[in-house]
Amino acid sequence: MPDIAFPGQDKLVSALDAAVSAGDDHAITAALRNTLCRMIRDRDVALPACIYEPIDDHYARREIYRSAEHGYSVVAMTWGPGQGTPVHDHCGLWCVEGVWDGELEITQYELLEHEGERFRFRAAGGMQAGPGSAGSLIPPHEYHTIRNTSPDAVAVSVHIYKAPMECCSMFVPERGEWYARQAKPLEIDEAH
């Protein structure tokens, strides 16, 4: 379990605990979106300083809290200039993602069909998300990419998962709208 103290941690955790008690997946993610937007703007809550330190060869995933009582996991991600993800899923876990600092480009993908390990996707809308914005993913509508398109600024996002997300499927482009699915173990980078 992560043990990283930061200003406003108790306030953030209390608000998240209340939100995850909201009911079904749709009610929980709606409550978490509102809570996360409020916490991003709350001057009493500040992420640990290490969260703003990018890692050169990949975006950083640092777990800053895991609820022993409710099972959810809070991961802060640090996106260096140009860093991003391939099309990926969340292995059946709901997730609420909020931009804490900087800007991120988020593109949703619609699954059109699949044949074994080959999947056909089409981009179904994208957005530039800035500080204080949050969205949610509820399976089966979980396919997306995230990218920091800035050439020189770091972006930080906070992701609340139903449970610790230790792996996902990523989708590697083949031809046209077709992608090959590959299992991807997800590492947690050290937070200090």
Automatic annotation (TrEMBL):
Question: What one GO molecular function would you report for this record?
Answer: ferrous iron binding
Work out whether the entry's keyword set contains Oxidoreductase: yes
The signal peptide here is: none
Q: Where is this cross-link: 3'-(S-cysteinyl)-tyrosine (Cys-Tyr)?
A: C95-Y161
Q: From what superkingdom does this record's organism come?
A: Bacteria
Give binding positions for Fe cation. H88, H90, H144
| InterPro entries found in the cross-reference section | CDO_1 (IPR010300), RmlC-like_jellyroll (IPR014710), RmlC_Cupin_sf (IPR011051)
Q: Which Gene3D superfamilies does this chain map to?
A: Jelly Rolls (2.60.120.10)
The keyword Zinc appears for this protein? no
Going by the UniProt record, its keywords in alphabetical order are: Dioxygenase, Iron, Metal-binding, Oxidoreductase, Thioether bond
Any Pfam family: CDO_I
Q: Member of which family? A: Belongs to the cysteine dioxygenase family.
What name appears for this protein in its UniProt entry? Cysteine dioxygenase
Q: Which organism is it from?
A: Marilutibacter aestuarii
